[in-house]
Design brief:
Helix content: 55-70%
Number of strands: 0
Order of helices and strands: HHHH
Distance between the termini: 55 Å
Shape: elongated
Structural class: mainly alpha
Number of helices: 4
Length: 82
Amino acid sequence: MVRTQIQLTERQARRLKKLAAAQGRSMADLIRRSVDAMLAQPEANDDIVRRTRALRAAGRFRSGVGDLSSQHDRHLAEILSR
């Protein structure tokens, strides 16, 4: 194993310690299990990242097209037919 150091908020540490005690496990074991669970689903995490980025970008750019929201399908079809 590789030793690493992380920083948790006070609340995270408190809740993690309580959960570890309730399950009879160490905090480190719970953290390792959480990392394993996250890494086992890279596609899901990639999807979350893509969705988050898309939501942050929404509305930040101007198209210059006045009817884009009501005629988006027509505009998309025009672009894809080029």
